[in-house]
Write a structure and sequence with these properties.
Elements: E1 8-11, E2 21-27, E3 36-38, E4 49-51, H1 54-60, E5 63-66, E6 74-77, E7 89-91, E8 93-96, E9 104-112, E10 120-127, E11 136-143, E12 148-154, H2 167-173, E13 180-183, E14 196-202, H3 207-211, E15 215-222, E16 225-232, H4 238-241, E17 255-257, E18 273-280, H5 283-288, H6 301-307, E19 317-327, E20 336-339, E21 358-359, E22 362-363
Parallel strand pairs: 4-7
Antiparallel strand pairs: 1-20, 2-19, 3-8, 5-6, 6-19, 8-18, 9-15, 9-19, 10-11, 10-18, 11-12, 12-14, 13-14, 15-16, 16-17, 21-22
Length: about 375
């Protein structure tokens, strides 16, 4: 079934009895890239990658607005898959121009991500200024052929979170999660800089995630807790479609982070910018390459990435949009807000010939 991509106009004032959130940012459609800036500095994680600027991404087809029989006007971010290279494979990384603090809900429609590819470290994340101070929240991240997502927090100061995977803690707090904790120390200064990690369920990352049409990732950042939901394409709550999200009515979150000592998270996570990037190799992959399922392909990740451009054809993002919500002010007047709803079904289309260049919100 072809999903609807029509724009719905909702009156927030009339929906307040259903949701205490109002839309404050709609990053979608042909204007998506107006809200982001391209990162073209050397890779901070020492990857075999060359992040390109906006003009280069636009002119070489590594970024654009994609449409097909199944969807219309979604953001495309790719990796060069046609050239052998010597000094890093061209790729893309974008960061939001706006930054955000607590009491914010992010709802992100991911239709395809660069997962399930040897040599690729892809991530959708939020990061504060002066990393690790200001914090980092990883919403969709893993490497190589991984099939499970990792929800991770990194902090500059010491922060330990409660273990909601522990039945005793879950029972006493009433909080259950779909994932499971594998580390509780968020500090970047801790050995290995692992962060506090919740391991996702099967097929929340990689080729099966893409084959199933991706899904919606929702992040609710409150002063006392950070909650993440990852909804498959067929389980997206109806209130998300209608632009009136009510997280308290959703199923249990996939990840839930609270400071073990009751500290406010606002001191650890602030001025957060959204980031989408596709790294090639990098410190995480390089450290594990020799023992990974990809090791038989080449003696090193860089050697593989340099000589096998076609291997990166599936290393691309299709982003249906990001809607950002914040609490309705008690004295706010009713405001007409245009909301682009996420689609409730999607196939794995062939759309590449329909990727169009962008320029300040206008398609060429």
């Amino acid at each position: 079934m072809r999903p609807s991509t029509l724009v719905s106009t909702l009156l927030v004032g009339g929906a307040r009895s259903l949701s205490n959130y109002q839309l404050v940012g709609n990053y979608s459609g042909v204007a998506f890239f107006n809200n982001f800036q391209f990162f073209s500095d050397p890779d901070p994680t020492a990857g075999f990658v060359k992040y390109v600027d906006q003009d280069t991404a636009n002119s070489t087809g590594l970024a654009g607005i994609a449409s097909s029989d199944q969807f219309k006007d979604v953001a495309y971010l790719g990796v060069d898959s046609s050239s052998t290279v010597q000094a890093g494979r061209p790729s893309t990384r974008i960061e939001s121009q706006n930054s955000f603090n607590s009491s914010t809900l992010f709802v992100t429609d991911i239709r395809h991500h660069p997962g399930g590819v040897c040599g690729v470290w892809s991530a959708y994340w939020l990061v504060g200024p002066n990393w690790p101070y200001g914090g980092e929240i990883d919403l969709l991240e893993n490497i190589n052929l991984a099939t499970t997502n990792k929800y991770v927090l990194h902090t500059g100061s010491n922060l330990a979170v409660s273990n909601f995977s522990d039945p005793t803690v879950a029972s006493s707090t009433g909080m259950n999660i779909n994932g499971h904790f594998s580390n509780l120390n968020c500090s970047a200064a801790a050995e290995g800089n692992i962060g506090c990690v919740v391991e996702g369920q099967n097929n929340t990352f990689g080729s099966e995630f893409n084959a199933n049409g991706g899904g919606v990732i929702a992040l609710e950042y409150l002063p006392e807790a950070i909650s993440v939901w990852q909804f498959g394409r067929t389980e997206i709550p109806g209130d998300i479609f209608h632009g009136t999200p009510i997280p308290s009515t959703w199923r249990r979150p996939d990840a839930h982070f609270m400071a073990g000592d009751g500290l406010s998270l606002e001191d650890f996570f602030y001025s957060l910018r959204m980031v989408f990037n596709t790294d090639i190799c990098g410190s995480w992959i390089d450290k594990l390459w020799q023992t990974s399922e990809c090791a038989a392909l080449a003696p090193s990740c860089a050697a593989y990435a340099a000589q096998n451009p076609a291997a990166f054809k599936e290393a691309y993002w299709l982003i249906g949009g990001v809607q950002v919500y914040q609490p309705v002010a008690s004295d706010a007047s009713a405001t007409g807000i245009t909301v682009v709803p996420v689609a409730n079904s999607i196939s794995n289309p062939s759309y590449r010939r329909h990727v169009r260049r962008f320029s300040q919100g206008h398609v060429w």
